[in-house]
Amino acid sequence: MLYREAGEFKATYQADQAILTIRQDRWFMLALMVIAFLVIPLISSEYWLGTIMLPFLILALAALGLNVLTGYAGQLSLGTGGFMATGAFAAYKLATSFPDLHIFLVILLAGGITAVAGLLFGIPSLRIKGFYLAVATLASQFFLIWMFNKFGWFTNYSASGVISAPPMAVIGDSYVTGPYATAEAKYLFVLSIVVLFALMTKNLVRSNIGREWMAVRDMDIAAEIIGIRMLPTKLKAFAYSSFLCGIAGALWAFVYTGSVEPLAFDVNRSFQILFMIIIGGLGSIMGAFLGAGFIVLLPIFLNNAPHWIGLNIHVDLISHIEFMVFGALIIFFLIVEPHGLARLWQLLKEKLRLWPFPY
Amino acid sequence: MSIKRIKTSIIAAAVISGLIGASAALAADSQFVGSLVYRTGPYAPGGIPWADGFADYIELLNARDGGINGVKLELEECDTAYNTDKGVECYERLKNKGSTGMPAVMPLSTGITYALLDRVVADKIPLITSGYGRADAADGRIFPYVFVPPATYWGGADIAINYIANQEGGYGNLKGKKIALVYHDSAYGKEPIKTLQALASQYGFQFSEFPVPHPGLEQKATWLKIGRQLRPDYVLMWGWGVMNATAIKEAAAVGFPREKFIGVWWSGNDADMIPAGDAAKGYKSLQFNGVGSDFGVHKQIKSELYEKGKGSAKSAENTGEVAYNRGLQSAFILTEALRGAMAEYGNKPMTGEQVAWAMDRLDISADRLKEVGADGLFDPIKLSCADHLGKGRAKVTQWDGSKWVAISDWIEPHATMLRSMYEASAAAYAKEKGITPRDCK
Question: Which residues of chain B lie closer than 8 angstroms to A319, CB-CB?
Fold first, then answer.
């Protein structure tokens, strides 16, 4: 009754091609943006913004990157952590070699460098498919981390191999990295980047490039027969996916933690992001965000919950309960909806269209 | 529908937490103490005794003296599972609790330490990393909120070479000797390399590095190379967790004498020796604290806490573990700093900034150690605005098959050489981060 397309007429092609064709969806998105950009920074504490929203947004961006590669182009990858590390180290080298470079350019260029790394590691994807490709991309994960550990040049010969971000401002005095950056500035900076690239990705997957990716994903031989060239298509997916992961890695190192060692991007990070898109929904922009929310926010929620309801139990017991409940919830969601949380979201919208008269 | 319900409950919980968080401020006259521990996760065997030691010392002060100068201590732990993401979350969760917030943070992990370096400057909360973290934070002019007593990795490397030189009859005999380093391939493991390289060129010994990838369960190739090809005179180890026991077993397998195998303090936990069994007998490790549980402070903990069933560890027998003593030491340094801060600002809960002021002037004398029954357990520490390390001394201990035995007195590292290395490294950091060193006069 409230949510339906009936009665909304589209008079132009533009209107027909809009991302959100239903008016209520547009309102919802607008409201979401207002909440994200205005309400959350106003009402949230520093803990909430800096410790919960920041990693959520950054990992959602990485999940978005992996979702392009795995969800849209069908290339299973376990190299996300390595690509995030590439982005982080590239940003560090850029920021320390060219101190006057603007932070936005540093992050974009770091993404660009990661895209080149992604291209290189994407080349085997022409010959290797499915699980075998996952193993091949695992090599990139280990190789890249090893490389940053091994060669002192990447860390400016720091004794410990740790990189740390110099203070950088978006404009004037509004720092987004370094000790004097406020949580609000960091949050708004990351949010803007994430929204920008989410929008870009959404449009990209609706364009001919995205359709090529989906054709390759659904059946590569059929795609080849209708004239899609495998190598450029797959490499485009690798490059764009690594680009987003590189940006996420740079943001993680610069804006979220400030200093990182290569181990912050070890294989566990790759798995974490892969689980995000599996839980969230493969081949869905929304899924990357829902999955990141599930994987990042739920453990924190479970860990804090006993305190909130006033239970005084030992920290180790809380941690173990967190593991058990979290694991059980993953199994529950995969049984209830194997296509991920994004599919539940879609079903919800379909049900809403019929509400309150479902046949 | 379920997803919507979950979302609603998450949001509801968030709102409620905000409300409770605001109202849950502890009684105004008690000092909040936040403790980042890892009682779970892959490194829990080393983390549990530390957490118990820390908690026991705080509880001892509460039970025996009613806190510090009448200010009761409110301890809250947060489990990091030795995971950097969780550690940052724990820090942010605890930092504003209590009436004055967290007086100091001891993250107990090099990864978390690095992630907090920027945050503690903004929050003005001292970061105390006892025997881990950034060695160059010994330069207090550039790291006003980071403190590294009682020892650093660079100092540890120097002490190990010092001990070897002693065994060989003086530094002159080091020439031509072969010394290998087996290290965890991470920020932590790489810390001693520069120091060892500098010492190698100074004293003419041959230094070789053997990185072991995390987690360190596979070291066969490394040890074949060490035991069959290189045949070094001594092997040093910067290992962590399961890597330690594996290395000791592999050393035994290739017949490398354990008496010439020296680990840093984090390769010297009781929990790491027991899995290695007989292979560990004779293995040596540096320790920045004394070993055993015969000190006065242990006796008081046993009578005040364990006999009344209030101890944190499973039983009083666990109170002598090396990691437990380190926990005691961390709690001791923190509470002494609180005492120092209260002497200046009055007997009320202290803020991080006040504790940082006291840490800059921390003076734990030998007399004070006798007073608390920790004579020989800890080394005296005297810090200043520019020196955030102190003497940086450590002992060499040997595993006799069931416990650690101290086999040397406190060994002092080369203070001037290390100080210039700390300053050079800290200056490079300051340049990168655009930090102006504070004036320490």
Answer: 39-41, 79, 81
Residues B138, B34 share a domain: yes
Per-residue pLDDT for B105 more than 90?
A: yes
pLDDT score of A177 more than 90: no
Closest chain A C-alpha to B371 CA, distance in angstroms: 32
Q: How many domains does chain B have?
A: 2
Q: Which fold has domain A44-354?
A: ABC transporter involved in vitamin B12 uptake, BtuC (1.10.3470)
- Does residue B430 lie within any of the structural domains? no
What is the predicted pLDDT for the residue at B16? 46
CB contact under 8 A, B39 and A304: no
B135 and B60 housed in the same domain: yes
Both B33 and B137 in one domain: the answer is yes
* Dihedral over Cα of A343, A347, A348, A350: its sign: positive
Whether the per-residue pLDDT at A32 is higher than 80: the answer is yes
> Residue B413: inside a domain, yes or no?
no
Instruction: Give the pTM.
Output: 0.87
- Token pair recorded at residue B345: 């600002």
Cβ(A148)–Cβ(A135) below 8 Å: no
Residue A259 to residue B1, Cβ atoms within 8 A: no
Domain end position, chosen among B226, B259, B287: B287
Q: Give yes or no: residues B221 and B132 share one domain.
A: no
Q: What is the pLDDT of residues B178-237, one digit of tens each?
A: 999 999 988 888 889 999 999 999 999 999 999 998 888 889 999 999 998 999 999 999
From residue A40, give the alpha-carbon distance in Å to each of A45, A255, B91, B189: 9, 18, 21, 41
In this structure, the dihedral spanned by the alpha carbons of residues B16, B21, B23 and B27, taken in order and rounded to 10 degrees, is 150
Q: Which residue range is the domain that position B188 belongs to?
A: 154-287
Cα separation of the two ends of chain B: 65
Domain assignment present for residue B437? The answer is: no
Residue A48, token pair as written in the block = 């909430």
Closest CA to B186 of B47, B11, B43, B299: B43
Which residues share a beta bridge with B406? B397
Give the residue, B317 or B56, on which the prediction is more confident. Answer: B56
Three-class SS of B257-319:
CHHHEEECHHHCCHHHHHHHHHHHCCCEEEECCCCCCCCHHHHHHHHHCHHHCCCCCCCHHHH
DSSP-assigned letter for residue A73: S
User: Would you call B190 and A96 a contact, using CB atoms and an 8 Å cutoff?
Assistant: no
Of B259, B287, B315, the domain-final residue: B287
Q: Give the pLDDT band of residue A36 (cuts 50, 70, 90).
A: very high
B306 and B374 assigned to the same domain = yes
Using the beta-carbon criterion (under 8 Å), do A149 and B185 form an inter-chain contact?
A: yes
Domain boundaries of chain A, sorted by first residue: 44-354
At B6, is the pLDDT very low, low, confident or very high (cuts 50, 70, 90)? low
What residues form DSSP beta bridges with B32? B74
DSSP code of B228? I
Q: Can the peptide bond before residue B215 be classed as cis, meaning omega within 30 degrees of 0?
A: yes
Same structural domain for residues B204 and B230?
A: yes
In Å, how far is A304's CA from the nearest CA of chain B? Answer: 9
In a domain, B398, yes or no: no
Same domain, B147 and B43: yes
Mean pLDDT of B142-149: 94
Q: What are phi and psi of A34, to 5 degrees?
A: -60, -45
Same domain flag for B37 and B147 = yes
Suggest the residue from A48, A84, A316, A320 to mutate for an interface test with chain B (most B CBs closer than 10 A). Answer: A316
Sign of CA dihedral B244, B245, B248, B254: negative
- Return the CATH number at B321: 3.40.50.2300
ipTM of model? 0.86
pLDDT in tens, A102-155: 999 999 999 999 999 999 999 988 888 888 999 999 999 999 998 998 888 998
Listed residue (B326, B321, B330) closest to B404, CA to CA = B321
